[in-house]
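Researcher: Next entry: Integrating conjugative element protein pill, pfgi-1 (Variovorax paradoxus).
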Amino acid sequence: MCPSPPWFHHPERRLLAGFLGLLWSVLAGGCATTTAPHALDAIEEVSASPEPEAPEFIPVVRYGRYSLVELAPTAAQRDLLLQTIDVSMPEDARATVGDGLRHVLKRSGYQLCETAHTVIELYALPLPAAHLHLGPMTLRDALLTLAGPAWELHADDRARQICFERPSDSLAAEPTPEPTAGDAVQTFPLMPSSPGGQP
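Model: Predicted structure:
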């Protein structure tokens, strides 16, 4: 009887030899496979690859040792209603929604619109306890939270004023179009019919 090779008595070496044999057979078998050629009558659609857009130049400056900072305003600096606020209202028992709106708008760059008479009833409402602390949230969301869902926010960026109005007020302000001659429909009174079918 032939003596067994020395690596045969070590299970790790037997496992490694078996794995290498299996790997060799898979690789050798993979070389024999071929791919089917494309059919000659098959039409392949070639889509034009989109042209890469030219990268937008953004100026940067070194800030500190390892940081580069873009020389561009943030979105909140471009649109002031996107600035993040975290506000605690002064705890006054007689605080109104108007007081809360004015407090939120402090140092925001906007002021509250005081000209509309219909909005006075919004400003006079008592400030809910849930609104004594607002944030962190955007300025727009804080104003809409204070006003409630019955009011629409309108920002006048030219005068930097925030105004509120009810949707029904804006619909009433729009003039209704007058009917044209083609839209007019003539109606004739109905005559009661007799049982014989004659009027």
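Model: Note for the record: The chain has a mean pLDDT of 76.
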